[in-house]
Structure prediction request, 106 residues.
Amino acid sequence: MGWLFLFSAGLAEIIFALSLKYNMGFTKLYPSLVTMVSGGTSFYLLMLAIKTLPLGTAYAIWTGMGAVGVAILSIFLFKESVDWVRLSSISLVIIGIIGLKLSHVE
Prediction:
């Protein structure tokens, strides 16, 4: 169950980070509500995940999911650059996330 909580926390973290772009410094009501709810949800689900998963592994995967998700979605949503350095860096983070997952034996 911890992995499901962690995966869900990562998705909520992506929503949280993307909503920061849209809330315009908390001046837009609905995007600000999305920021608050998704941020709280992300932290809550991470808290549930670390009850059964190692903290270092869970936190690294959570932040990695958020970083990769936001970086990829920003390419499409905000027309951020797509070059080999950016894509290689994203790939390295993904490899790290997979490595952490594989290194955790239950």
Summary: The chain has a mean pLDDT of 95.
